[in-house]
C-alpha cells in the first residue's frame, strides 16, 4: 500500500525521472501534487506496471491531481552537463511548471539539488512508497515513451518503439551497423568497444 504524504505539508510534490540509463533520447521528469482525496489501487512504481496500465493511469493522474508538470532534457544537454545533473534539471523544470507552488518536495532516489527555498527529501525507491512519486514516475515514463515512439519513425532501424533507447543487444547492434544519430548521447558508452566506433 503506497503512502499519501511524507511530510505534514498539504502541498507535497513528488518528482521522478525516466530514461536515465538510455543511450538515446531525453531524460524526462515529472512532478505531481495529488489532491487530498486521490485514491488508486493500481498505481505503483511505473517499472512494476505494464505499458497498458501506465497508459490507463496517465489520464487519471492528469485529471485527478491538483497539478502536474513534465519536462524533457535532451541529449545535447545531457552530453554537456552529465546525466545526473540533467536528471535533476529535468525534475527542477517539471516542478517549475506546477501551480500552486509546492511546500515540500519528495524525490525518488538519493540525489537532488535545492529548488529555491522549498524543503525536500530524497527517498530511495520512493516510487514504490509514495503515491505522488509513483504518479510522477508514470507520467515521466509515458511522456518519454511517447517521444521515443515519435523519433522511431525517423530512424526505425534502432527500434526505439520497442527498446525506448535503452541499451538492448538489438539497439547496440544497430549502432554498430548504422552508427549514431543526432538523438544518441555521445558522452555515453554506446558500444562495449567504443574505441572502434567512429563518431
From TrEMBL:
Keyword Transmembrane: no
GO biological process: DNA replication, removal of RNA primer; mismatch repair
CDD domains to which the protein is assigned, alphabetical: RNase_HII_bacteria_HII_like
Top-rank taxon, per record: Bacteria
Limits of the RNase H type-2 domain: 10-199
A GO-annotated cellular component: ribonuclease H2 complex
Assigned keywords, A-Z: Cytoplasm, Endonuclease, Hydrolase, Manganese, Metal-binding, Nuclease
GO MF entries: manganese ion binding; RNA binding; RNA-DNA hybrid ribonuclease activity
The enzyme's E.C. designation: 3.1.26.4
Cited PROSITE patterns: RNASE_H_2
UniProt key word Transcription regulation: no
Reactions the enzyme catalyzes: Endonucleolytic cleavage to 5'-phosphomonoester
Residues that, per the record, bind a divalent metal cation: 16-17, 108
InterPro entries attached to this UniProt entry: RNase_HII, RNase_HII/HIII, RNase_HII/HIII_dom, RNaseH-like_sf, RNaseH_sf
Co-factor remark: Manganese or magnesium. Binds 1 divalent metal ion per monomer in the absence of substrate. May bind a second metal ion after substrate binding.
Cofactor(s) essential for the protein: Mg(2+); Mn(2+)
Enzyme class: hydrolase
Compartment(s): Cytoplasm
HAMAP family linked: RNase_HII_B (MF_00052_B)
Family recorded in the similarity comment: Belongs to the RNase HII family.
Purpose: Endonuclease that specifically degrades the RNA of RNA-DNA hybrids.
Protein name: Ribonuclease HII
Lineage of the species this protein comes from: Bacteria, Pseudomonadati, Bacteroidota, Flavobacteriia, Flavobacteriales
Amino acid at each position: 500500500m503506497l503512502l499519501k504524504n511524507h511530510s505534514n505539508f498539504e502541498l507535497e510534490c513528488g518528482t521522478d525521472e525516466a530514461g536515465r540509463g538510455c543511450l538515446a533520447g531525453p531524460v524526462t521528469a515529472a512532478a505531481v501534487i495529488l489532491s487530498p482525496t486521490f485514491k488508486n489501487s493500481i498505481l505503483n512504481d511505473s517499472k512494476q506496471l505494464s505499458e497498458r496500465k501506465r497508459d490507463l493511469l496517465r489520464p487519471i493522474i492528469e485529471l485527478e491531481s491538483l497539478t502536474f508538470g513534465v519536462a524533457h532534457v535532451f541529449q545535447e544537454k545531457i552530453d554537456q552537463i552529465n546525466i545526473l545533473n540533467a536528471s535533476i534539471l529535468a525534475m527542477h523544470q517539471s516542478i517549475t511548471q506546477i501551480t500552486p507552488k509546492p511546500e515540500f518536495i519528495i524525490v525518488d532516489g538519493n540525489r537532488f539539488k535545492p529548488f529555491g527555498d522549498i524543503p525536500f527529501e530524497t527517498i530511495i525507491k520512493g516510487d514504490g512508497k509514495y503515491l505522488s512519486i509513483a504518479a510522477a514516475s508514470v507520467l515521466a515514463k509515458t511522456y518519454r515513451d511517447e517521444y521515443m515512439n515519435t523519433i522511431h519513425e525517423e530512424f526505425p532501424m534502432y527500434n526505439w518503439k520497442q527498446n525506448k533507447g535503452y541499451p538492448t543487444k538489438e539497439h547496440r547492434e544497430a549502432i554498430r551497423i548504422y552508427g549514431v544519430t543526432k538523438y544518441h548521447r555521445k558522452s555515453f558508452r554506446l558500444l562495449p568497444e567504443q574505441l572502434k566506433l567512429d563518431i
